[in-house]
Amino acid sequence: MEDAIKVGLCGLGTVGSGVFRLLSENAALIRNRIGRNIIITKVATIDRYDNLGLDFSQTRVLDSVDDILQDPEIDIVVELIGGKTIAKRIVLESLQAGKSVVTANKALLAEYLEEIFHAAYKSKGTLGFEASVAGGIPIIRSIKQGFSGDRIDKFSGIVNGTANYILSAMSRDGINFHNALKDAQERGYAEADPTFDIEGIDAAHKVILLMAVSFNTLFEYSQLYIEGITGIDPVDIAIAAESGYVIKLLGRGLRTEKGYEGRVCPALVSKDNMLASVTGAFNAVSVWGNFVGETLSYGAGAGSHPTASAVVSDIIETARLINAGIDNPVPPLNIEAECLTKKDILPIDDTESEYYLRIMLNNTEKSINSIIRILSEADIDIRSMGQKPVSNDLPTQKNLILFTEMANEKRMQLAIQKLNGLSFVTKPVRMIRVEH
Q: Which of 259, 267, 333, 363 has its CA 20 to 30 A from that of 397?
């Protein structure tokens, strides 16, 4: 016991109990890999724990985190409580005390990015947050270590399994959003309150962290453009499929000459794109390095076991550093403190994209000419155009389907406002960005 790496675990919910179980079941294997035992000596939880089937013979179970934070013998503090109040205190006080911290708390890290990472840079301990992005995919470690010699210019990924499951079900079964959401909830992929997943908030937290690690820069979460999937209709999925695309909720970060772009929104992805084949509740992230080119990391993005595995990987990496007597060998954001800066994310109005537009209208030659004129005046070039019937019940109405060339977002939004004001446009224009 004297020779063990001592861990204080805050939170014994789904992921916390998974971490406890993994460290217990694989204890011998882990000892062989690092040369020392890793033992959870203290657990702080307010949840019932006597029905989890865990062996607490070497562990004190507490109802407060204070004993863990004040214990000088604790080497690694693992924060799995969630939220942004007690969790923030756990992370900051532990780092300030020189302890290493492991957390899966993406919301906390994303919304207090500057404060927490400045504390991590000043601490003798390390900050492990692999489990905060894409569950069991080691994407944070891949970027920090595997791409350490490359300049990362872009990443694009599916980082929310719930949204991806819903869109996959809509595509596979031809059902609407609400039925797909109900199916996801029944299968345990979506929470009773799915707001964070379907509105893109969960993905946005992950995108900010990916931007910080990829571009070695601090960013403001509030500047990220966020759009969810609640407005996606089966007709758009069907038209996308006919045109060689699938619709995905994508998180994207891009380094440009004008600055940094960052957004979470639905996008049409070509079926030739590697991300198009990622279905169900799985996650995948493509990263472009200036020498390595494009890479793809794929795997389970959530759940007790994948997330617990990512947490334990951080615990083991930290234990190896403790063994070697090394403090923070890889800076938290993969750049030295004196080089760390904070940058703005470009407003969505300043970005460019290709666009898919679906315009429901009372079809006449005059109406189509008016639409083309509005887009032309906004300097938006049309790549392709076609028509689809709305339904047998509405024989005079058509869906006008347009794909544009690259265009400025602000001009597109102003053009859509004008299109929505036309008397023959019967429903608000549906616009979805096209990802390359």
A: 267
Domain range for residue 383? 348-435
234 three-class SS? helix
Q: What is the pLDDT of residue 47?
A: 82
- Determine whether 106 is an active site residue: no
What total of structural domains would you count in the chain?
Answer: 3
Element (H, E) at 414: helix 409-420
DSSP string for residues in 298-329: EEE-SSHHHHHHHHHHHHHHHHHHHHHT-S-S
Is 343 inside a domain boundary? Answer: no
pTM summary value = 0.94
Closest CA to 157 of 67, 58, 252: 252
Catalytic residue among 206, 271, 366, 388: 206
Contacts of residue 63, defined as CB under 8 A and 6 or more positions apart, other chains included, come to: 44, 45, 46
pLDDT in tens, 193-208: 999 999 999 999 999 9
Distance, CA of 319 to CA of 6 (rounded, Å): 9
Do 271 and 258 contact (CB within 8 A), yes or no?
Answer: no
Predicted confidence (pLDDT) per residue in 307-330, tens digit: 999 999 999 999 999 998 877 778
